[in-house]
Amino acid sequence: MSRPTTRALNASLKRWPGWLLLVAVVVVALAIGATRSSGPMTDGDRIDSIAQRLACPTCDGESVYESQASAARGIKQQIKRFVEEGTSTDGQIIQYIQTQFGTKTLLVPNASGFDALVWALPAFALVVSIAGLTVAFRRWKLASDTVPTDDDRAMVAAALALEGELEQADGS
Questions:
Q1: What is the pLDDT of residues 111-165, one digit of tens each?
Q2: What pTM does this model have?
Q3: From residue 124, how far is each of 27, 121, 132, 136, 144 by CA, in Å?
Q4: In this structure, is residue 47 part of a structural domain?
Q5: Does 17 lie in the same domain as 2?
Q6: What is the crossing angle of helices 43-52 and 90-101, to 10°?
Q7: Residue 81 is part of which domain span?
Q8: Considering its fold, how many domains does the chain have in total?
């Protein structure tokens, strides 16, 4: 291994702790943000939260929360009834509405089973792409750090000599 390549490798290894620290901070921040509870919800907040996750069965691309259609108002009343009874969780209410109107009523896919791929695949593709680009850029940088050999110098000298001869021939 030549000297510049060793230096580049050492410099690269010295940057790793900083990158690892950055990744750790991002992962911890995402974990805290995803699991943090904003406190107990009122019944109204709960109804709105559930209605925002469900699509109106008669509208195109509108949530039950936003829609003024009669079907959406009926679903909101059903959600309100379940919440006021206090016997069903949000997931159970959504599951009930889904069985009544079909899977097209979910605006946000489930985070389990096949639907989890909808969430995980883009993130995985991004990580793999960044890793691939990092490897490619490092290879290109290491390739540019190589010291020219005597054959390389002779080839450049011959090309320059040929270029000089061609310029003299054109100038005569």
A1: 666 767 777 888 889 999 999 999 888 888 777 767 788 998 999 999 999 988 8
A2: 0.49
A3: 14, 5, 12, 18, 30
A4: yes
A5: yes
A6: 40
A7: 43-105
A8: 2
